[in-house]
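We treat protein structure as text, and this decision shapes the records that our systems exchange. The tokens are whole numbers drawn from a learned vocabulary of local backbone shapes. One such record is reproduced below, unchanged from the form in which we store it:
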Amino acid sequence: MPTYEYECTVCGLRLAHRQAMTDEPIRQCPDCSGELRRLITGGTGFVMKGGQGASARETGTCRLEREGKTCCGRDERCGEPRCGE
């Protein structure tokens, strides 16, 4: 399932939400109940197990340091070493 990024038009909260492409966008901010808008981002594409290049696996670096997002699309470490490898 893809991850979509949203931003609240009232309080500015940014969040990522995994949902099916056929699901309706979420509309209400969980913090202030304001209106959320879905952001257009570069996207992470589909993550396939073993799809990461050998150089990243060998060095043990997370994409977060190199690209600003983890391979699962988060803005922070997800707590799993190299996204479950």
Summary: Confidence is low (pLDDT under 50) at residues 51-59.
